[in-house]
Design goal:
Order of helices and strands: EEEHEEHEHHEEEHEHEHHHEEEHEEH
Helix content: 25-40%
CATH superfamily of the largest domain: L-amino peptidase D-ALA esterase/amidase
Largest sheet: 6 strands, mixed
Mean pLDDT: 93
Strand content: 25-35%
Number of domains: 2
Radius of gyration: 22 Å
Length: 400
């Protein structure tokens, strides 16, 4: 099931190189071809320094309807003042003119270097080029055009059967660094041919984003540009209106966002492995989430995973400073990879002096760190990656 955002019926996309980057694609458009505007929902960064496209898109999303998304990479259009907001509006107007849309129905997203004005002649020429190349086979090129330090595209498709028939949800995302759980953590665009009311779509997105995009972290930094945008054009002729259908649709959206989110972690800057931090036994889910996030953001834990250093004391230290209720003597820790599970801590104490199995499990491409606080039924999972020399090298040379 290829195509990502063009897999659902009634969507076209394009990705082109306009000159914001030296060689790679750097501008994308995703558009609905239906006669009526699609329902739209969005979630955005909670960073208080917000890029012009975020400020602009909040207003468009609040209207509940949109027809297209235009996105550029190579320039964040953040910290650019009133001129940056005017440039964002100009991007929307250019798409609207090219596709005969109302400019108020065009969403805009940007990613890249902060504090640099957009070269608008370059961007506007790119919009004209992308508009001319829109097609049902353009999903992969659009996914490529939104990347920054990513090494590969992130594309997913999910199909779900509702009471009126089958609908499709497709998505693309970008993100490899400057990522942390706080309402979006990246750019992601999702389309569906289901008919969903704007309020219901907003509710579905907000529920689906919490255990997925808001539960991944590469480095604890939340970007100025983070946005997830969803368009539902109803082209399948199947409505998600009943409680049961909305539940099925939301579950499908969560599955799609979950796969995209883990793909971002697997491609984290300099990452060699994915670490799934599962915390259970907390007083509440919120407490479990706080512990899992603290562990996942710990540089000491993340560097230990870089080399398979079996220093489980780093995990205990992170648990203790998470700021939630714990009883040290009830904590249990284990690490699993593939079919092997290594018990590490029981009742707050190490269970063995032979730490070689733990080190091997930590070096797996995908391992699970299990933490049981022994206090209640609260649980949460956060995905992270190891912290390597590659991360430092990339960010030491990236102007932002």
């Amino acid at each position: 099931m290829s195509g990502g955002v063009t897999a659902p019926r009634g969507f076209v996309a394009a990705g082109v190189h306009c000159g914001l980057k030296e060689e790679k694609p750097d501008l994308a458009i995703v558009a609905s071809t239906t006669a009526a505007p699609a329902a739209v929902a969005g979630v955005f960064t909670r960073n208080r320094v917000q890029a012009a496209p975020v400020v602009y898109c909040r207003g468009v999303a609040a209207g509940g309807r949109a027809r297209a998304i235009v996105a550029n990479s190579g320039n964040a259009n953040a910290c650019t003042g009133d001129a940056g907001l005017a440039d964002t509006r100009a991007m929307a107007a250019r798409v609207a003119a090219a596709l005969d849309f109302d400019a108020g129905h065009v969403l805009v997203a940007s990613t890249g270097v902060i504090g640099v004005p957009l070269p608008m002649p370059t961007v506007l020429a790119g919009i004209d080029l992308a508009a001319a190349e829109l097609g049902s086979d353009g999903g992969e090129r659009a996914a490529d055009a939104i990347l920054t330090t990513d090494t590969r595209t992130k594309i997913e498709v999910e199909k779900v059967v509702l009471s009126g028939g089958q609908v499709t949800v497709g998505g693309i995302a970008k993100g490899a660094g400057m990522m942390a759980p706080d309402m979006a953590t990246t750019l992601a665009f999702v389309t569906t041919d289901a008919k969903v009311a704007p309020a219901a779509l907003d509710s579905a997105l907000r529920r689906a984003v919490e255990p997925t995009f808001n539960s991944v972290t590469v480095d604890g930094d939340t970007s100025t540009n983070d946005s997830i945008l969803v368009l539902a054009n109803g082209a399948a002729g199947v409505e998600a209106a009943s409680a049961r259908d909305l539940e099925r649709f939301t579950d499908a959206l969560e599955r799609l966002l979950g796969r995209l989110a883990v793909a971002l972690i697997a491609d984290g800057e300099g990452a060699n492995r994915v670490v799934e931090v599962r915390v259970g036994g907390a007083r509440t889910d919120a407490a479990a989430r706080q512990v899992a996030t603290t562990i996942a953001n710990s540089p000491l834990v993340k560097t230990a995973y870089r080399t398979g250093q079996p220093n489980w004391g780093r995990v205990m230290g992170a648990i203790g400073r998470a700021g939630v209720e714990i009883v040290e003597q009830r904590i249990a820790i284990a690490v699993s990879a593939a079919e092997e599970r290594v018990e590490v801590v029981h009742d707050g104490l190490g269970v063995t002096d032979d730490l070689a199995p733990l080190g091997r499990a930590m070096l797996a491409d995908h391992s699970v760190l299990h933490v049981d606080l022994g206090l209640g039924s609260g649980r949460w999972t956060v995905w992270t990656c190891d912290l390597s020399e590659g991360y430092v090298r990339i960010n030491a040379s990236y102007i932002s």
